[in-house]
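Any chance you'd type out a single protein's sequence alongside its tokenized fold?
>
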Amino acid sequence: MAISIKGTSTQLTNTTQFKTATAVHLMNTHTAAREVILRNEADNGAVGTIRVPSNGTMIVNLVIGQGLRCASTGVFGTHVASGSN
């Protein structure tokens, strides 16, 4: 699977980010797992949580309008597009 990078790496904060992305590459630089919160399109509630393993990475697919937050430091996100081309 190919991944196209669409932006620069940004540390997640308590403010919802990546609301216009359909895929985000998450990277945890901390030695402990970190919890990332998936926010709904209205940004008035959580849809769920994702645990990013210590020193781990993953790609999260989103619906336009949804976003990500993380109260802990050390989690970075990069807007990407995934697919076969």
Observations:
- The mean pLDDT is 91.
- The first strand starts at residue 2 and ends at 5.
- DSSP finds no helices and eight strands in the chain.
- The domain at 2-83 is CATH 2.60.120 (Jelly Rolls).
